[in-house]
Amino acid sequence: MDLRQVVRILNHFCVPHLADTWDNVGLLVQPSAPFAVSRILVTNDLTEPVLSEALKLETNLILSYHPPVFSPLKRITTDCHWKERLVVTCLENRIAVYSPHTGLDAKVNGVNDWLLSPFDLVSKKPITPIPYAKESMTRLTFPFTDSAGQFCITHPSSVSAARLPGRDGSTVSITCSTANMTTVMKQAMDMGFSAMETETVQAVIVVYLLIPEDGQ
């Protein structure tokens, strides 16, 4: 399965937007595309011995509950901190790393709920409630072409240049309220783009648009 698909499934299940602000969750190490996940190793902590086991098992995705990359790395070398060596080894051997941590803790029926399950509780509530966006937003992402500029300037949306993981070339992202999504999608269809897939991220719905085969 393509890494992008695996990450979408993990993001849906592990809800990384619920992670605490100090945490570092989600896809932490990503080899260059194309990248198909064939074997996953699950561990509580990614250490050098665990990575050695992953190499022996020919694993190419490590699901580590605790993030092995937590503090910002100032350099990535093999003769310094062991966590830097982990990143180097993973990239050299094309191994992706994903960490759910506090996102998986905080979700409904997640780790926190599981830890409380043996107790006969009268009530429970989060210490820090997660704020939700007042208005659901939709982000449409499509490859940059000659028609992309026209598409952007003819609709009052926020536009940002980006590179979508696993896709070649630059992409353009259009963000609008979900209430206006039908209008924006219709305009995209009129210009030859077609909806390929959708994904929910936090309170944002992401719609990827596929460039027409004729390139127009």
TrEMBL record:
Binding locations of a divalent metal cation: 66, 105
InterPro entries: DUF34/NIF3, DUF34/NIF3_sf
Molecular function via GO: metal ion binding
Keywords per UniProt: Metal-binding
Keyword Iron assigned: no
SUPFAM superfamilies per the UniProt record, alphabetical: NIF3 (NGG1p interacting factor 3)-like
Family to which this protein belongs: Belongs to the GTP cyclohydrolase I type 2/NIF3 family.
Name assigned to this protein: NIF3-like protein 1
